[in-house]
Write a structure and sequence with these properties.
The complex is a heterodimer of chains A (about 500) and B (about 475). Chain A has about 500 residues and is α+β, with helices and mostly antiparallel strands. Chain A has helices at about 5-10, 10-25, 80-95, 130-150, 225-240, 255-265, 270-275, 345-350, 385-390, 445-450, 495-500; strands at about 30-45, 50-65, 70-75, 115-120, 155-170, 175-195, 200-205, 245-250, 305, 330-335, 335, 360, 370, 375, 395-410, 415-425, 430-435, 435-440, 450-455, 460-470, 475-480, 485-495. Chain A is about 20% helix and about 35% strand. Chain B contains 9 helices and 22 strands. In chain B, strands 7, 8, 13, 14, 15, 16, 17, 18, 19 and 22 form a 10-stranded mixed beta sheet that branches. In chain B, strand 4 and strand 5 (about 170-185) form a beta hairpin. In chain B, helix 1 packs across helix 2. The longest helix of chain B is centred in the first third of the chain and has 17 residues, at about 80-100. Strand 2 of chain A pairs parallel with strand 3 of chain B.
Chain lengths: ~500, ~475
């Protein structure tokens, strides 16, 4: 956990000074420059044979300026002072060129000057420094274990490792160097019925995490246990009956619920969306600004926070990409909408004071936009119920485990999710797996039907590397923690029936 | 080309990397220089705007091992001097030496002829390409404010110049321009919304006013609101919405997945459905690097291998590739090595997609005029695979669903969540118009070059109502 010597050896200050100095000369009111190196490695095996390897380094400098109320951004891979200074000319030029169509001058919320400061996420072994051959060897071992199990016909295993070094400097005087590390190991087993050509699959439940290579070798996830269990679980799934469509009580495991939170709460409570700034692409939100403080989002046991400080969170930072210090804040309290995720523009435009630090750019080539914090559902206070206790309170229902397919509308009302495993709940007990299940609901109906949340022992930090938003498209990593939770009377579909079979 | 005395010419990068390569079985170098400009707007004002210039260099080294060829690929942005090139080559060779024998091994491609354009410079774009659109935005915003509309959208233009060289003597260059303009207009009370978009190579054929007029027309259709329940409806997909589904269909054409019994195109006992009829209409689905208006790379550019793409195939010629012919599945995607194993011809991914019904003509309005009662969509959104076995997809209708009655649009309908398979959609298509340039709202960022007909489909499964607008 230290600043990267090779990154620190780059002419960071000289590049930033050149860009900011020229921006000042050109009359920029505000300017922020990021020199950023993103190393990413992907190794993917199919049936224990290497299918894909990627070993990539992105190194570039990007500058955002605010001049006469108009924003401009420019970026280049050329790391010279001349090129950095030229970015200011280009960013100011496009800010000027588009100012004729600017109706609302951009204002950024005040933020104290920070630094110079150095911050790093929590990890032990930088995963991109682990040789690809070692990664291949680990994934071969996983694949062979799966393929050796009865009933497994094919196996996939992959790991995606990212190490992000970022140097931020602003005209206001903030100077920050940050390092973030993240890892996504995954495996999936497939069972094929060669007579019919049909198949089933089951994927590991391990979430991606803000951890180093140690995560793939057992620190934070019991890989050996899951590798041993998945073939049996897959065999059970192959034998299981197709679900009957209808209305069921659902107990949803954190391995599935994190994604429902992401889509129906995380995105819906981004203020730029709620105000219409994403109307052309990601969409808007039913949780409009006039409903702040009054919208009944869910049941009284629903408490949701935005947090950019949680250890191992994929959206955890020391400072965001506008130089705002990381924070934790309420979004839903006692089932009522009480807060939004903000960047500096959203905070200033709506009189909300300081930004809560949700600006992010996925690349030095992209401008920071408002992105998601680690948005998490709090567990029950005290010890709280275990998952088994939630199940015991269900007469006829389904226990949903693992995420798979997901989709939600552009105002975050109507969603549909599937999963890795579905268990029938019969009179308070699990009664075997079901196939072909999807659950579908409207956001506030669904969260309003949440009768109980599990205790902290059920809490898991899930998440994804690939949350998309913005134009040009940007991809952000984000975590979502949650306990198991019990929902009453949710619509369940049979996916084969939906396909007309 | 923009050199500024800092980044060496891309050809020099290619030649330097090949000169220092010590890989026993060869080396492939890909240099991609990309420039881009974009303007984003919402709430009748510009928001974020930017320009960027990028170079990305990939080096693939091939090294003999005991039982085959090991591959190492290293890539990075920038690459400013010889030492950085040398480091990249060394990194790829180190990985190749430690790699197991590659499953996709094939002889590196040997040039059949010299590409004279290889010596030509990078082609660039910048903010001036968007000047006419940007110049028109202020007026569009004024008109929108006066009429109680709120405009949002995005204009972007990008040019990539790719240089590909190999130790076998390949020297190829491809210039890929491309851009899109998307517009959304919402009534200021939030009760009506409409979308339109256009893809273009150089933005010289993008007509902001015409697109604005299309939005105004669609918002006017929505003056009458009709609530309809979930169910199966005869549905008209305009070319853009057809592209939303057909792009997903094309993504499912993996030969390996089909043979492994993991795709909608799998048949029992490791066979595939090639040769089976998908539609009673004689549709042709093709990719063609030389398709007029949709030109794309005529050779393989593969910085990494995957199920149906191989770094060994870099530089291989891509020709007109017919995926569906006369309504039958004609072929699936294979790289050369997999094709040899399976006893079929290689079929490479093509960066454009055309669906055509031979003999069909007329546009969306003609199809509407011939329709007694159907839903008319605008575009589809948040499309995700639910079941790969049937290619069942879920997603939403967005920014305009209309009811057609007796050949005319009679009002706007609520949005729906659909659960449908594009394979079934083709099978249940009863009529199609002539093919025209289309922009997939969902996939246009990755597949902007499409031509599609409007489709009239029976029994489109609208699974539930979405109150979103």
């Amino acid at each position: 956990m230290a600043e990267s010597p090779s990154f620190a050896a780059l002419p960071l200050e000289a590049l930033c000074d050149a860009a900011l100095g020229r921006a000042r000369e050109l009359g920029a009111n505000d300017a922020e420059v990021r020199v950023e190196r993103i190393r990413s490695q992907l190794v993917a095996l199919r049936d224990a044979m290497v299918e894909t390897t990627v070993d990539d380094t992105e190194l570039a400098v990007g500058l955002r300026v605010l001049r006469r109320g108009s924003q401009g951004f420019a970026a280049t891979v050329e790391l010279t002072e001349e090129a950095a200074a030229r970015l200011a000319d280009e960013a100011c030029a496009i800010a000027e060129a588009t100012s004729s169509a600017l109706a609302v001058p951009v204002v950024l919320a005040e933020e104290p000057v920070h630094g110079p400061d150095v911050w790093s996420s929590m990890y032990e072994v930088d995963p991109v420094e682990v040789p690809l051959a070692d990664k291949v060897a680990l994934l071969e071992d996983w694949s062979r274990r799966l393929l050796a199990a009865p009933g497994v016909d094919h196996a996939e295993a992959a790991v995606l490792a990212v190490t992000e070094d970022k140097h931020f400097s602003s005209l206001a005087g903030t100077v920050i160097t940050q390092r973030r590390v993240r890892l996504r190991p995954v495996f999936e087993a497939f069972a094929v019925d060669s007579e019919t050509g049909s198949f089933e699959s089951m994927r590991s439940l391990a979430p991606p995490a803000g951890r180093g290579w140690e995560y793939a070798t057992g620190d934070g996830w019991a890989w050996d246990d899951e590798l041993a269990r998945v073939p049996e679980l897959l065999a059970e799934k192959v034998r299981s009956p197709s679900a009957e469509a209808g209305t069921y009580d659902l107990v949803i495991d954190p391995s599935n619920l994190w994604l429902t939170i992401h889509e129906s709460v995380g995105h819906a409570t981004e203020l730029d969306r709620a105000l219409g700034y994403e109307a052309a692409y990601a969409g808007t939100s039913f949780a409009t600004f006039d409903k702040l403080g009054s919208l009944r989002y869910g049941s009284p046991v629903m408490h949701v926070t935005g947090d950019r400080t949680v250890p191992h969170g994929l959206a955890t930072v020391g400072y965001d990409d506008e130089g705002v210090e990381a924070q934790s804040f309420d979004i839903v309290r006692d089932g009522v909408l009480v807060g939004y995720q903000l960047d500096r523009r959203m905070a200033a435009e709506n009189g909300l004071g300081r930004s809560n630090g949700c600006a992010f750019a996925d690349s030095p080539m992209h401008v920071p936009i408002q992105r998601m914090a680690n948005v998490s559902l709090e567990p029950a206070a005290g010890e709280g119920p275990r998952t088994e206790e939630l199940v015991s309170g269900v007469e006829r229902g389904i226990y949903v485990v693992g995420d798979k397919s997901w989709s939600i509308d552009m105002q975050r009302y109507n969603f549909q999710f599937t999963g890795q495993r579905f268990y029938l709940i019969d009179r308070g007990r699990l009664a075997g797996q079901l196939r072909d299940v999807a659950y579908q609901a409207r956001t506030t109906d669904f969260w309003g039907s949440m009768e109980a949340v599990g205790g902290s022992s059920t809490f898991v930090l899930g998440g994804a590397f690939n949350c998309g938003k913005g134009q040009p498209g940007q991809v952000a990593p984000v975590s979502h923690g949650c306990p198991s939770a019990l929902f009453r009377a949710v619509r369940v579909l049979n996916t084969r029936a939906e396909a007309g079979l | 080309m923009r050199q500024d005395g800092r980044l060496p010419p891309p050809q020099e990068v290619v030649e330097r990397a090949l000169a220092v390569s010590r890989a026993t079985q060869g080396c492939v170098v890909i240099v991609s220089d990309t420039s881009e400009a974009d303007v984003r707007f919402a709430r009748n004002t510009t928001t974020t705007n930017g320009t960027r210039r990028e170079r990305h260099v990939s080096v693939a080294s091939f090294v003999g091992s005991g039982d085959g060829v090991g591959v190492g690929v290293a890539s990075r942005s920038g690459v400013g001097d010889a030492s950085e090139i040398d480091k990249l080559v060394s990194a790829s060779e180190a990985d190749a030496k430690r790699a197991r024998a590659a499953e996709d091994e094939a002889p590196l491609v040997v040039p059949s002829e010299v590409d004279p354009s290889f010596t030509e410079p990078t082609v660039e774009t910048g903010a001036p390409v968007l000047a006419e659109v940007v110049g028109g935005l202020a007026g569009a915003f004024e008109r929108a404010r006066a009429a109680g509309r709120v405009l949002a959208g995005f204009a972007t233009h990008q040019v990539s110049t790719v240089y590909l060289g190999s130790s076998t003597g390949l020297r190829r260059r491809h210039v890929q321009p491309g851009g899109t303009l998307e517009l959304v207009a919402r009534s200021d009370d939030g009760t009506r919304s409409a979308w339109t978009g256009a893809g273009s190579a150089w933005f010289d054929d993008v007509d902001l006013l015409a697109l604005e007029e299309r939005l105004v027309r669609r918002l006017s259709w929505a003056q009458r609101r009709i609530e309809l329940p979930a169910g199966r409806y005869e549905t008209i997909l305009p070319p853009d919405a057809a592209a939303d589904l057909v792009v997903t269909l094309s993504e499912a054409m993996s030969g390996r997945d089909a043979e492994d019994a993991r795709s909608v195109f799998s048949a029992p006992a490791g066979a595939t459905k090639v040769g089976e009829t998908l539609s009673s209409l004689p549709f042709e689905l093709r990719g063609d690097p030389h398709e007029p208006g949709l030109q794309c790379a005529p050779f393989v550019i593969a910085p990494a291998s995957s199920a149906d793409v191989s770094v060994f195939d870099n530089g291989a010629e891509i020709g007109r590739t017919i995926w569906i012919e006369a309504g039958r599945l004609a072929r699936l995607q294979y790289h050369r090595s997999a094709a040899q194993r399976s006893g079929v011809a290689p079929a490479f991914a093509v960066d454009n997609l055309t669906l055509e019904l031979p003999g069909a003509s007329g546009g969306l309005d003609d199809l509407v005029a011939r329709t007694d009662r159907a839903l008319l969509l605008t575009c589809l959104w948040y499309i995700r695979e639910v079941d790969p076995h049937t290619l069942l997809l879920t997603g939403l209708t967005r920014d305009g669903v209309y009811l057609v009655e007796h050949g005319e649009v009679t009002g706007a309908v609520n949005n729906f969540r659909f659960n449908e398979s594009p394979v079934e959609v083709l099978a249940r298509t009863v009529e199609a118009g002539g093919s025209e340039r289309a922009l997939s709202r969902e996939w246009g960022e990755w597949m902007a070059r499409t031509a599609m007909p409007a489709l009239r489909v029976e029994g489109f499964n609208m699974s539930s109502v979405s109150p979103a607008i």
